[in-house]
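User: I'm putting together a teaching handout on how multi-component assemblies are represented. Below are the sequence lines for each component of a complex, exactly as they appear in our records. Could you produce the 3D structure of the whole assembly as structure tokens, so the students can see both representations side by side? Please keep the chain order the same as the input.
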Amino acid sequence: MKTFKLGGVHPAENKLSESQPIEILQLPKKVFIPLAQNLGAPSVAVVKRGDEVKVGQLIAKAEAFICSNVHSSVSGKVTKIDNFITQTGYKTSTIHIDVAGDIWDESIDTSPEIKHEIKLSKDEIVQKIKEMGIVGMGGAAFPTHVKLMPPPGKKAEFLIINGVECEPYLTSDHRIMLEKSEELLIGVSVLMKGLDVKKALIGIENNKTDAIRILSELAVQYDGISVYPLKIKYPQGGEKQLIKALVNREVPSGKLPIEVGCVVNNVGTAFAVYEAVQKNKPLIERVVSVTGKTLAKPSNLLVRVGTQISELIDKAGGIPQGTGKVVGGGPMMGKALVSIEAPIVKGSSGILVFDEKEEKRLEPQNCIRCARCITACPMGLEPVLLAQYSENEMFDLAEENSIMDCMECGSCHYTCPANRPLLDYIRVGKNKVGQIIRNRGKA
Amino acid sequence: MNDVIIFSFISLSAIGIAAAVILYFIAQKFKVIEDPKIDLVADALPGANCGGCGFPGCRNFAEACVKTGKNQGNIDGLNCPVGGGETMSSVAAILGFEVTEADPLIAVVRCSGTKTNAPKKVNYDGPETCSFAHSLSSGESGCPYGCLGLGDCVKACAFDAIFINDETGLPEVNEKCVACGACVDACPRNIIELRKKGKKDRRIFVSCINKEKGAPAKKNCAVACIGCGKCVKTCPFEAITLENNLAYIDFEKCKLCRKCVEVCPTNAIHELNFPPRKPKPEKAVSENKPEPKTIADKTETEAKVLKINKEGN
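Assistant: Of course. Below is the structure of the complete assembly, with chains in the same order as your input.
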């Protein structure tokens, strides 16, 4: 069985909501759809206060290249376009919609039948994906159409589909693979056509044997799609690690996967692409795992974009007594939320509730130079050094030691026996070094 | 034997003399003529090399003084904030100018989000640096403009003039401040401003930089500027401007009449080092601080005990 070579850790899996089928969350009364949901430039609103919108109607348009369209996830009336809290606590321009009924745009095919035949051509597929506002559903929310347009001179050889879901607790991708297998595979074929590649590799970690079985059985009917079980190791879901594991190629420092002829997409993205291209449905809802040991009912919910996080937690049994922290995303890479009033966006993969004991950080002690963090780093960096450089503001040395290659997976932090907040300091350094590099570009 | 000694003596001497002549001409050609005044001016400066004047060090500042003195006939634009008027007049004396003393400046912290005014809604337990906390989230009180209280300004200060008051959680500036501006650059939220020190250290300023509308600003902090514009209307000297829901007092125009302080409904405008006012019975009610307690109660129920930190272990 394949896996990546360098580093990695084995956190407890805690896939509590693994066997919970995807449930549809009841329609919220109000949704708050931020204009900046993707990596890159924010979109520009095309509706105004008082407008009636339908489900799937375009409400904000992409004006820049790395940008995506935003569609209304509900039907109702736009009450205002004003600042609203996001998951970081900062406010951004958000479209507030009062929900009335559930009227879908006529162009969307809402029938349950599965459409196998791909009618659109390569360029039409890319155009459609752009139009429907599809972004990477793994968390970073990078606009998918940009990935499908390799820079001139570069050619993709492999499409890699990321079904690894190496983050503990999260199960949304797992449920999509189980329940929407056929749609997912059609989505992969669509992406293959859009990218003009002959081979697609789906990588799934070996703790999801049911998904591996179902998808391998079905994949026989599709040309060029093969399913690979992978050894369990965090962070296998990182783009670069997955490429290394599946096709044994190494992405050079600071470069994109296309450099080695690969394009990586999440299974959630593949499913969204199926819906967009075959059913003409924009990205307006996504599966979110709401989980945590103290939650009454950890679940996988199909949620409209813009629903407040508090509604999801209520559905899963409400905030339990003694909750210490609510995290947006998984326990390794997620960020603690400042407010649960904030809305779900296209990139939200999970909501994780920790009680006071679980969330407590242990007291950091002196570094004992055991080099466990160096062994654990999947990017081959030296976290202990980078953290020290950042702590002592030696940013030039941090840059020399490739601090910008860190993908913030948290393996070093997880493995440190002295509980040193390594990643915290590396993030401080990345932040500063990034600023320095940007300023250099300007000068 | 003698021949060898004489030959080497003569040849070496000839090489030596030739080299000396070449070096002399080269030295003449590339001679750096430095004004002796630069040394004199540099000696008169404090030598702290703090960069507060905008030049990398004291010597560079001295060079700039001599150069602009020559070009303009005065050194008006230049000021050593550390040495102040005294140093600048001695510099002017060396260069032979009259000096117009610049008003001394001081760093002012424009945030009043103390622990009672802007109660904590979440806990932050990440690294103790403001710049990082700023990039991660809006902070413990929820105000996206307010002071994070993690002390980047304190670390930046070379003069021991700014420190965090544990009671309020906010930085305070003491009389050691020389207005070098290091803290101004260090603050990721641009809360600190250099303002005129004022006569007898009397200063009036808006102690808030929140650009949100009134209601959301008030939600996070009891003493936020809500942009009501009362001070703008009251000011007889047109010193106050209102932009993006935030009032700003121009310290060049402000005559320290204190009328704006009286009308501010949230007590966002601060006065420092003024003698106490004559008690006015009818004003006594409005001068009481708005009760932060009710707001604190309300926000506490909303706060769902969340922590900002990244989950690592």
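A couple of points students might notice: Strands of chain B lie at 105-109, 122-123, 162-165, 170-173, 192-196, 203-206, 240-243, 246-249, 269-272, 306-307. Confidence is low (pLDDT under 50) at residues 283-313 of chain B.
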